[in-house]
Amino acid sequence: MKEKSYLIFDLGQSGGKVTIGYYNGKKIRLENLYKFDNDDVFAGGFLQWDILKLFGEVLTGIGKALSVNKDIQSLGIDSWGSDYSFIDKRGYLLGNPITNRDNRVKDTLNSFYKILSKKELFNLTGVQLSSSSSSSLMQLYSLIYLKSKIFSVAEKYLMIPDIINFFLTGYPVCEYTLMSFTQLVDQRKKEIIDYILNKYSIPKRVFPKMNFSGNILGNLKDDLSKMYGGRKIKVTTVAEHDTASAFTTIPFKERGKNCASIILGSWCVLGIEVNEPILTDEAFINGFANQGGVEGVIHFRKDFPGFIIADELRKSILNERCLDLSWDNIFMLVEKASPFEFFIDICDPIFSAPGKDMKSVFLNYFKESDQGLPENEQQIFRCIFEGMIFSFRSAMDVLQKIIGKKIDLIYIIGGGSRNKIINQWTANILKIPVWAEIQEATSIGNMLVQMKALKDLESVINERHIVNESFKFLEFYPENITEYEEAYNKYLSVIKRKEKACIKKL
User: What pLDDT is attached to residue 504?
Assistant: First the structure.
């Protein structure tokens, strides 16, 4: 067959990238085309996204792609979750989306959880978030709490990719994988929960039709099509939540094994694919959540801080003195540092608190947990990455207990998946093989769903073997298991000691 091409937009909170994906009937390949920055803007008392800049970058990306390949059939857009804006009856945008990092939610949380508790919301939606995150529901309620007048003129609620898709096609819809993580949706029935809307006094009329991934939304509007010589590019609804797109690439049921995955990046996500949301008390207590995926599957997941903690430490050190702290150099230092000298719980909120000097945070943590003080920064960097893999182990032990099955294989994907040190350490601590190195998992997932929308694939779930056939995985097998098991037990004892010290303070 003639090679087909698809245009992929992956929008992130710090930047976006444009990629062309190609499929020849057997394998897929990617051509990275264009990258751009995305920065929030503090204006009018709120931290906002410049959505028109993002839309402009999408238009630029379309133009650049067509200059390279005039046969592009379709495009799909994925992004982060939570953030949204409204359009009015005329289709005019009612302001930039406010970021989920804005402080407006912080002042309303006590009132928010008095209406429905964290456990009640989990039972209804399958979703819970870390203390540093805010859901769309929280943000919507903050508008009610602050007596905003926006609902008197708002016609439709749209999330980031859906805003841009509306600009491209004129069709307002909400895509399911994004909506599934808003704390508004019943993932069993796959519909918005009227009970939650009523409890928080949010009008249902502002929510457009929910669109499932793998559909053609429409062609570029005529005025936009004329900009590109009349090209009628199809705009598709992909798995628009970037995490859902990334999970889409993983052949969970390949080779007869029970597989799990870890998305390795600034934040890490460990998860499996299930057919129904898991809503047990054990899942809630241990911080797991559910997210909708393509073709009706559920991603049962737990989130952790990842490289973001090391990045904050890097910035803290660079504020003191000038050093070569590129990631390559950091991991050279990490390899030289003695293993398992210091231990941290990377999920401790102290490491996510904004505005603190991260080096001082670590030194205080070591002191409070009676670990002594490190001789140099490379020991701190090492304990961060060891803390990451210990968190993977803790979550994996709980996950296997919840599902009643042993996980046989881990896929590591995402921006950090080429880090051979973390990949090997993960295999060692989990005592199972690790397959890694799909850095572009989100873009690949985006493309697979476009292929389904255009009927170039019958089923994404059943044909993910294409990923294995198209990309080479690096394989890592467990080593030094006894040493890692002893270190993990020592880690657990240090964490318990730290918890007792915190209780005494209270």
Answer: 54
